[in-house]
Design a protein that fits this description.
By secondary structure, this protein is of the alpha+beta class. It folds into two domains: about 80 residues; about 100 residues, 2-Layer Sandwich (Alpha-Beta Plaits), CATH 3.30.70. Helix content is about 40%, strand content about 20%. Strands 1, 2, 3, 4, 5 and 6 form a six-stranded antiparallel beta sheet that branches.
Length: about 250
């Protein structure tokens, strides 16, 4: 092997080493950086699209900011951030005056923490099916076949209430119930109007869960009743029991 061939082989080897070194040190890292830059660009474009959508929604919300503020103010009056019992008393006084009834008593009990009620159903009860039996034949007689058993369902279906809808933001740490009991006296139409007003007109939410109607002493004594009054009923006293609510921090 002459010197020229050795130089040629050495040059090829050196060129190959230089090419590999250039790939490892220079070209490959640059390609990786370019690929990472492309991925970052795609991610940035996706985030930009999400931001543009959020910005568009915020612009729409801001266009109706006055209506949202009015709705918030109404909700804060319905379920305030503090007890505000005096304001509720004023509301009841105004509604009783408008309905032409006299509020004879009103009490607000101690606050209790809210506890959602879980819906559930009882397990179906199993009903065993009767079994067939055969009478033993008498001596010298023939066997009398017993009637076959009538099939019956093995279980009785029981209706189950739907699940209670809850909000994790409303819990026993920030939602409080205050029991309220009030009595109002007036004619049947006035008492009915007052009952509807305290439940539906607000502004403070008063959820009535029990109504007891009793006729006044001037009317024939028929005892206490819990049915809805009619126009023909005499003057009476309505006792309403229910709850007002406080959402701590809702102010």
């Amino acid at each position: 092997m002459n010197a020229n061939r050795l130089w040629l082989i050495g040059g090829v080897v050196v060129a190959a080493l230089v090419a590999v070194l250039a790939w490892v040190v220079g070209i490959h890292p640059q390609l990786q950086q370019a690929s990472a830059a492309d991925e970052q660009k795609i991610s940035a474009q996706s985030q930009l699209q999400q931001t543009e959508l959020q910005l568009g929604q915020l612009k729409k919300d801001y266009a109706s900011i006055d209506a949202l503020k009015a709705q918030l103010a109404t909700l804060q009056q319905s379920v305030p951030g503090t007890q505000k019992v005096t304001d509720f008393f004023r509301q009841v006084a105004q509604q009783s005056g408008a309905a032409n009834v006299s509020v004879t008593s009103i009490t607000v009990g101690e606050p209790t923490a809210y506890a959602p009620t879980a819906a559930g159903g009882s397990a179906p009860a199993s009903t065993p099916a009767p079994t067939a039996s055969a009478s033993a034949p008498a001596s010298g007689g023939t066997a009398t076949p017993a009637p076959s058993a009538t099939p019956t369902p093995n279980a009785t279906s029981v209706a189950v209430a739907p699940p209670v809808s809850t909000d994790p933001l409303i819990n026993n740490a920030n939602f409080v119930m205050l029991p309220v009991s009030l009595s109002a006296t007036g004619d049947t139409a006035a008492v009915s109007a007052f009952t509807s007003a305290v439940q539906n007109q607000g502004p403070r939410l008063f959820l009535v869960n029990k109504i007891t109607l009793a006729q006044n002493a001037s009317a024939p004594d028929t005892g206490t009743k819990s049915s809805t009054p009619t126009a023909a009923s005499p003057a009476e006293t309505a006792t309403l029991s229910g709850f007002i609510y406080v959402l701590v921090g809702n102010s």
